[in-house]
Design goal:
single chain, 210 residues, alpha/beta, five-stranded parallel beta sheet, two-stranded antiparallel ribbon, 41% helix, binds flavin mononucleotide
Length: 210
């Protein structure tokens, strides 16, 4: 089994809860092939017209600019990482109600017709990653699991809609740590309980192949 962990926070684990979730997952994983794709460490130019210009130049053979070459290489690297994985773990924070921009760029790279989805002859969306499993590990300082606040949450919901809804991966585990900023007195307990669940998820993958 190949596990790809998409790490989407470059704040230190001593300060950032989602970085701690990443670290806890890695520490409790044993006997499996695991690769980290660190979206903050990769050279990932923004997705935009430069990419479409690069596609055009790929066809025409015209020389590409530096950013066009970097974009094509980075997009390919992200797609290759996803292709090689049986399980994809996403570890990310909620920042400003959504995911960090670097994780958005990773998703932009792999969200491609003919790769993660396609349309059939009736115009219906067909998911192309149905053989993969996904795990969601996310932290958010406020509480977004109540019916009133849930529509404001655009990090875990977004990632799940993309990888589950569009790409067709089976979301097998979801650990959310929330409310530790809203309730500082309970923060330690909230975080400890969540990290325990993260460790259990990691161990469940270790056991499968042990
Ligand atoms: C740049 C930034 C933006 C944030 N925005 C929000 C927010 O919109 N809502 C919220 O409840 N918490 C917000 N937080 C708190 C985080 O959700 C909290 O720290 C959580 O643990 C996830 O981020 P972390 O893994 O970086 O700690 C924000 C934190 C940072 C650093």
């Amino acid at each position: 089994m190949n596990i790809l962990v998409v790490k989407a926070n470059n704040r230190p684990a001593s300060e950032a809860v989602s970085s701690k979730m990443y670290e806890t997952f890695m520490e409790n994983l044993e006997g499996v092939n695991v690769t980290t794709y660190d979206v903050f460490a990769e050279d990932m130019p923004y997705f935009g017209q430069d990419l479409f210009n690069a596609f055009g130049k790929l066809q025409s053979g015209e020389e590409m600019t530096d950013v066009e070459q970097r974009l094509l290489a980075a997009k390919q690297k992200a797609m290759d990482a996803l292709s090689a994985a049986d399980v994809v773990v996403f570890a990310f924070p909620l920042w400003n109600l959504t995911i960090p921009a670097a994780l958005q760029t990773f998703i932009d790279y792999v969200y491609a017709a003919g790769f993660t989805f396609k349309y059939d002859e009736n115009g219906q969306l067909v998911s192309l990653m149905t053989d993969k499993k996904a795990v969601i590990l996310s932290a958010r300082g406020g509480i977004y699991s109540t019916p009133e606040a849930a529509p404001m949450e655009m990090a875990a919901n977004y990632v799940k809609n993309v990888v589950g809804g569009v790409f067709g991966m089976e979301i097998v585990n979801e650990v959310i740590i929330e409310g530790h900023n809203a309730a500082p007195a309970q923060a330690e307990a909230i975080i400890a309980e969540g990290l325990k669940k993260v460790a259990e998820v990691a161990k469940s993958f270790s056991a499968v192949t042990a």
